[in-house]
Design brief:
mainly alpha; Glycosyltransferase
């Protein structure tokens, strides 16, 4: 007996197949529409340093609207305030805000540079570097008797004893090498030749593998991580030491060469650095290392660009995207659920702009493109007049295409693509319900 095909069932099967194909097409359309706008984690909207720095500086500038000093984690923080000002100073066009900050520094100098009645060398170095960046005189900050912050920094030098040559009387357990490197860079920026004992102290603190810990009480013992104090060889101390030694003319010496080799061994696959080598990359550590490498002319060396991304790209991967609204342009820190981090943004701004510890700005000037601006969608053929402000001899009248930056043009593709997916899913579900 001949079997009679079920034409109704066959028809429904063909309908389902067609719907599946339609849904596949919809997915392809969505992928094509969103490819430029849905970036993988870690992708940067601004891919060149100065543009990213200008974007971050705009965010920093708005943080000053709340008054001075800036607050970090809910507490007034002059250190972060000056670091943010150094980021602004690396770019042109922030004169009014920087004048405001400098006036506040002069008015609050003693609160900024002293702790428990003693001068703090790291803060003195920050003030000197900011004065240098703004074209101010670091020997005449304010009108008080301690206006010469350069002389005050020199006066903090420890003479004699196990810490002969260390700047500052404060406990160096957590910041010894870091403050020493910054102090050396600040003095050189002011035209002062540091005491040889200060240089020798920093060199003697180096670990056998080329790194630095914040402080080694006994330099005869090998460097190791101390779980009780939570200190060990770290990228920040190492980068600051490199910057300081380069400032005094030792950037090509054996000490710095060994340090550069250590930084190569602890650079992560994503191109960035972490504080301790076993952690994930973070923007602060990557920024201070970038400034140190730039100071010695090693930032573009092949050994630092052979990872998945170059150091600068790794740094910019922490910059918040256009979708973050008012926080767009700031830098986030790992583990903060994408929240903006003030200190990370300040350090990253200087590094992205092209600054080093001793040369803080201005090093980049605008105008800069807005990474979140909607780009023109029309193009012209070669030789066509692009209209006022739309072309130049360099681009021969070709206007930027849509989605040159992702921030302002991703909404429409998302809406269209989502609609296609929903329609396809609804239709497919209905077809399946009709099929026995």
């Amino acid at each position: 007996m001949r079997t009679i095909p079920n034409r109704s069932e066959d028809s429904r099967s063909r309908t389902t197949t067609r719907l599946l194909r339609s849904l596949t097409v919809a997915l392809a359309v969505l992928a094509a529409l969103l490819a430029p706008s849905l970036q993988p984690a870690g992708a940067a909207e601004a891919t060149d340093g100065p543009t990213a720095a200008a974007w971050a500086a705009d965010w920093l500038d708005h943080q000053f609207d709340g008054g001075l000093p800036l607050e970090n984690f809910g507490s007034p923080d002059w250190g972060t305030t000056i670091e943010a000002a150094l980021g602004l100073a690396a770019l042109g066009g922030n004169d009014a805000r920087l004048d405001e900050v400098w006036a506040a520094v002069e008015a609050n100098l003693e609160d900024i540079v002293t702790s428990s009645g003693a001068d703090v060398p790291g803060r003195l170095a920050q003030v000197i570097l900011l004065a240098h960046a703004l074209g101010e005189d670091p020997t005449a900050v304010g009108t008080g008797g301690g206006a010469d912050v350069v002389a005050r920094l020199e006066a903090t030098l420890t003479v004699g004893g196990p810490n002969d040559g260390l700047f500052g009387s404060q406990d160096p357990t957590y910041d010894g090498a870091y403050r020493q490197g910054y102090a050396l860079a600040a003095l050189v920026a002011s035209g002062v030749t540091p005491d040889p004992a200060a240089i020798a102290w920093l060199e003697d603190q180096q670990c056998a593998d080329g790194s630095w810990m914040p402080y080694r009480a006994d330099t005869s013992q090998p460097c190791a991580f101390d779980g009780g104090l939570f200190v060990g060889p770290d990228s920040n101390s190492t980068a600051a030491a490199i910057s300081g030694l380069d400032a005094v003319g030792l950037g090509s010496g054996a000490t710095v060469t060994a340090a550069l080799g250590w930084l190569d061994t602890v650079q992560h696959d994503d191109g960035g650095w972490s504080f301790f080598p076993t952690d994930d990359s973070d923007p602060n550590s990557t920024a201070v290392v970038i400034m140190a490498l730039r100071a010695v002319g090693a930032l573009d060396d092949a050994r630092y660009t052979d990872r998945d991304a170059a150091p600068l790209a790794a740094l910019l991967s922490f910059q918040l995207a256009c979708a973050e609204g008012e926080d767009a342009g700031s830098f986030t820190f790992p583990g903060s659920n994408g929240a903006p981090n003030l200190f990370a943004t300040a350090q990253a701004t200087s590094a992205a702009a092209g600054a080093t510890v001793g040369i803080t700005g201005p090093v980049a000037a605008g105008p800069f493109a807005d990474p979140c601006a909607v780009q023109p969608t029309t193009t012209t053929v070669a030789g066509e007049d692009p209209g006022p402000g739309q072309g130049s001899a360099a681009n021969d009248g070709v206007r930027p295409a849509a989605l040159a930056f992702t921030g302002g043009t991703s909404v429409a593709p998302i809406v269209v693509g989502t609609g296609l997916l929903l329609l396809g899913a609804i239709a497919l579900g209905a077809a399946r319900r009709r099929t026995p």
